[in-house]
Write a structure and sequence with these properties.
Layout: H1 2-27, H2 68-71, E1 76-79, E2 83-87, E3 94-105, E4 108-116, E5 124-132, E6 151-153, E7 160-168, E8 173-182, E9 187-196, E10 202-212, E11 229-234, E12 238-242, H3 244-249, E13 253-256, E14 260-264, E15 268-273, E16 280-289, E17 292-301, E18 304-306, E19 310-322, H4 325-331, H5 345-362, H6 365-379, H7 381-396, H8 398-408, H9 412-426, H10 435-453, H11 477-492, H12 499-516, H13 521-546
Parallel strand pairs: 1-6
Antiparallel strand pairs: 1-2, 2-3, 3-4, 5-10, 7-8, 8-9, 9-19, 10-17, 10-18, 11-12, 11-14, 13-16, 14-15, 15-19, 16-17
Length: 552
């Protein structure tokens, strides 16, 4: 019995430890790693945020990126049904994006969530450009483009909107950068058309990159954060993370066909998706501007030769938006892996699938969680029944166990031997009480990651004061109900023979109440409903056995 109680305590506290360890990983102190200067030799000059090219192709202009203050009045305004966008004429950089279907905070629905931002903190921008031969200047993400107008809007009846930016020089080379936005789509088609009006062939390659600073001051109410950083994917490499610390220690330089690169954060992401069948070199770089580290993941194409009096078009797709699981799966292979459920993905994905179906049925994520809890409880009903029968039978043995303890006192060896003989005689296995908890721990943790990672549940209201299932209960009412339910459960269990263990068990509801006060209220809702269902089942079985009705 002593060992059984210890196992139960370890199992319960283990849940909290696994979740808390995620918090430590994301919010704990981070060691700063010194960055060694690169020693690559090439025929290029290099701007601080240029791709690390090493072939005989010229780099961008050897100037720092122009600050947003110098071009703020010239930003190109674009509005669609999903986006409010600001594009800088310098490089055609997408400087700012607000997602019109998502609020910045649950209590301020009119303030839209800004995913891309041109200034620190939380700077996050999308850049692209071209490289030409050493004697052929081509536009980089620092070059000045022109446009026909400074404001574009997707109007009623239109399904698509194209924004064109123009660059040319005196040598007869022109570049047209186009962004095509489609109604209802978070995927933007971006093309860079190179027009060679000279009498000589033009060697050129295109690059596209995502640049951001570290994420700060977002959703302060959350107790745990998910991964923020760069990722890339390839058919052979599969899904790979390249954290900010890893980018400082070692740069990425790998050629991948049919892959993609991205910067991801909680609920949202931006990704460059190149055309299929075209090899791309994926790279990373860390720069420091005004004392702020900026992290870059990018890609560049193989060199293309554009014949005289001809043109060539580089085409890419850019995904900018929420990590909607159905949407990501349709955009590109492996893109859905950005919704990271961790090592319990195999359990979490079916849980989310079922939860989503229940949401479509009931129209509320809170009721979906409650029905999901009931279904999970039914799935484990027989297992729980075995556990509660074991506990009820042990509860009946409490007077005899107490007598044994009084008889042998502090003689632990003889006490345990006598208890084991009693269990054997009465055909009771104390470990049966632990089995359901061990089985349900992976389900609980998987549901935790579903609630934490699924943007579909972001800011989802339930009833009354529970207006956001992905944030903690603001009034701590639900955690308190959960703590009371744990205390009631303990009263239904047989008391431990060891007074020290009894004191520890009595503190568990208090400890769990404190911890759950910081957890998403959707998770606390699941745990509370599960406890209430367990109390009902355990009370029925215990009452039946004590009345001699139950069969065992």
């Amino acid at each position: 019995m002593d060992n059984t109680r210890l196992i139960l305590i370890i199992a319960l506290v283990g849940i909290l430890f696994l979740i808390y360890s995620a918090w430590v990983e994301d919010y704990g102190p981070v060691a700063q790693v010194a960055t060694a200067p690169s020693s690559t030799t090439s025929v290029m000059t290099s701007s601080p945020d240029a791709p690390p090219m090493t072939t005989a192709v010229a780099s961008p202009l050897a100037t720092d990126e122009l600050t947003v203050n110098t071009v703020k009045q010239q930003l190109i305004q674009v509005e669609t049904d999903l986006f409010k966008i600001e594009i800088s004429p310098y490089g055609g950089t997408i400087s700012n994006i607000w997602l019109l279907d998502y609020a910045q905070k649950a209590d301020a629905p009119t303030t839209k969530f800004q995913l891309l931002k041109s200034e620190v903190p939380n700077m996050f921008i999308v850049q692209s450009g071209l490289y030409g031969a050493v004697d052929k200047q081509l536009p980089t993400h620092n070059s000045l483009f022109s446009t026909a107008k400074n404001r574009y809007q997707l109007t009623e009846g239109e399904n698509a909107l194209t924004v064109e930016l123009y660059w040319d020089n005196d040598s007869g080379i022109q570049v047209i950068k186009r962004y095509r936005f489609e109604r209802g789509q978070y995927v933007v088609t971006m093309t860079q058309e190179v027009i060679n009006r000279t009498e000589k062939p033009l060697v050129v390659r295109a690059y596209d990159q995502l640049q951001r600073s570290e994420l700060h001051d977002v959703d302060q109410s959350r107790f745990v954060s998910t991964y923020t950083g760069s990722v890339y994917y390839g058919p052979e490499q599969k899904y790979k993370k390249k954290s900010f610390d890893e980018m400082k220690e070692q740069t990425l330089n790998v050629v991948i066909t049919d892959g993609w690169i991205a910067m991801i954060q909680h609920y949202f992401m931006a990704a460059w998706i190149p055309p299929t069948g075209q090899p791309q070199t994926f790279y990373t770089k860390v720069i420091n501007t005004d004392g702020n580290d900026r992290y870059i993941i990018g890609k560049y194409t193989e060199t293309i030769e554009v014949s005289p009096i001809a043109n060539y078009q580089f085409t890419n797709r850019l995904f900018v938006g929420p990590k909607l699981q159905d949407t990501l799966a349709q955009v590109a292979p492996g893109l859905g892996l950005a919704v990271d459920y961790g090592w319990l993905t195999i359990i979490a994905e079916p849980i989310f699938w079922l939860l989503e179906k229940l949401y479509y049925l009931f129209g509320n994520w809170g009721w979906a969680i409650i029905v999901l809890t009931i279904l999970i409880k039914l799935a484990f009903y027989k297992l729980s029944e075995t556990s509660y029968k074991s506990m009820a039978n042990m509860r009946k043995l409490t007077p005899r166990m107490k007598a044994i303890k009084d008889r042998y006192g502090d003689d632990k060896e003889r006490l345990n031997q006598a208890l084991m003989e009693l269990y054997k005689k009465e055909k009771i296995n104390p470990l049966n009480g632990c089995l359901p908890i061990f089985v349900q721990i992976p389900v609980f943790i998987a549901l935790y990651w579903v609630l934490l990672e699924s943007v579909e549940l972001r800011h989802a209201p339930f009833v009354l004061w529970l207006d956001n299932l992905t944030s903690p209960d603001p009034y701590y009412i639900l955690p308190l109900i959960m703590g009371i339910s744990m205390f009631v459960q303990q009263k239904l269990n047989p008391p431990p023979p060891d007074p020290m263990q009894e004191k520890i068990m009595l503190t568990l509801p208090v400890v769990f109440t404190i911890f759950f006060a910081f957890f998403p209220s959707g998770l606390v809702l699941y745990w509370t409903v599960n406890n209430l269902l367990s109390i009902a089942q355990q009370w029925y079985i215990t009452d039946s056995i004590e009345k001699g009705v139950a069969k065992h």
